[in-house]
Structure formats: structure tokens, C-alpha cells
């Protein structure tokens, strides 16, 4: 088991997200869309510029729904303990979480909301997780990270569990919620910047053609830099992630 300051744990997650943001963007966008209403395969395909069969396969694997009461429903296999805190923050929908402590068999109950956690029982419950690295990708995150993210009734039982990963970290639910907030903020920042990057690439192709139609020749001769929106957004990703890491230390 490892011990690290919370700000270092937050920084590692934000860095891993930034390093492979293109791979994680589909899930981020899906969660954001889910908070706006039902996500059909057609709607998801349009948002991600996928084919409808690709979107259908993604939706089937994601196993997330919002019920008639507006609560997020997640099957047991849909992510780790941290994911259950994170998903409500990105969808804006609360989730009633019931987990079983693998060391004691005790039921752990809580309500994960967009703001945090309510009604935690038992109050001493902790969350286990493995730290992601630059090599953590969307393809490896389930086996390398999520498989080791559990809720435990308390720290003592977690430490005594023989299957606890030797590199696992244990966080109070309050600290895990703070981590989830930081990841959610970074996810939104990266998603927004990626959208601007796409828009910038479109303008880079559209603006010169439009300029020629107006007979102006070079659009930059009129002060128009077609790539500027893309550069500004893409180059700011590193700065945004650095700022998020810095804020986690205060």
C-alpha cells in the first residue's frame, strides 16, 4: 500500500487524462450529454462523429441510464468506486450507490451527487485506487486501475484485505470526492478545448475558400488567422491542466 499527499494524487490523474485525452473524450462527452437528456445512438454518433453502429456498441458497453426520477443508474460492472463519485459530477444526476466491502461483506451506502456525497454509511468508509500513469490508456484503465478501485467499510479492513494491490492508495470518501471534483473539472476543460480545436480545424479549411470566393486572395492579409482558434485552444491545454493541479494544492 502507498501513501501520497492528495495533491500528488490529483496531479497524477489530471496528467494521465491530459496525456490520453483523445481516448477518454468519448466517455466524457457521453456523460455530459447524458445530463442533458436521453442519449440515443444517433445523438451520440453525431456528437462524436461516429457511425451509428459504433455509437450503439458504445452505449451497450457503457451500461449507464438515467431513470424517470432523474437518478443515474450504474450496473456493478460500470466502473470503479471513484467512477461512481465522478459520473454524477459530469452528468449532473445523483446516484444511489450500494457497494459491498470485499473484506468484511458489509454493505456501504451513499448518495453521490453533482456536489459531493450524502448519507454515507458507514461514515468511516474508504476508497481504494491505483495511481494512473502516462501509460494508462482507455484500453488499459479497466484492468490496471478500475479493477482495484473498491469501497471498504473502514481503513483497518481495507489494509487487512489480502487482495489489496500493493500499490493501492486508500482515501477517505471525502478525499475521494475532492479528487473526483478535480478530475471532473479537468475533463470539462479538456472537452471544451477539444471542441474549440475541432472548430479551429474547420475554419482553417473554410476561411481560405471563403476568402477566395470574396476575391481577397490570402485571408491573413485582412487580419484573419484561420488557425488561431485552434492554436489558442490546443496550446492552452497544458496550461489549463497545470492550473488545475496548482489549485488542488490550495
Q: Please, could you describe this protein's structure?
A:
- The protein is an alpha+beta fold and 250 residues long.
- The protein folds into 2 domains: 6-188, Beta-Lactamase, CATH 3.30.450; 189-247, no CATH class.
- Helices cover 52% and strands 13% of the residues.
- The protein has helices at residues 6-19, 21-34, 41-48, 52-62, 81-91, 141-144, 155-160, 173-213, 228-247; strands at residues 64-66, 72-74, 95-100, 107-112, 117-121, 126-129, 151-152, 169-172.
- The strands form 3 sheets. The protein has a 3-stranded antiparallel sheet with strand order 3-4-5. The chain has a 3-stranded antiparallel sheet with strand order 7-6-8.
- A hairpin with a 6-residue loop joins strand 3 (95-100) and strand 4 (107-112).
- Helix 1 packs antiparallel against helix 9, helix 2 (21-34) packs across helix 8 (173-213) and helix 8 (173-213) packs antiparallel against helix 9.
Keywords:
250 residues; alpha+beta; Beta-Lactamase; 3-stranded antiparallel β-sheet; globular
Radius of gyration, in angstroms, nearest whole number: 21 Å
Report how far apart the termini are.
26 Å
CATH fold-level assignment of the largest domain: Beta-Lactamase
Shape: globular
CATH class of the largest domain: Alpha Beta
Number of helices: 9
What order do the helices and strands come in, and which of them pair?
Blueprint: H1 6-19, H2 21-34, H3 41-48, H4 52-62, E1 64-66, E2 72-74, H5 81-91, E3 95-100, E4 107-112, E5 117-121, E6 126-129, H6 141-144, E7 151-152, H7 155-160, E8 169-172, H8 173-213, H9 228-247
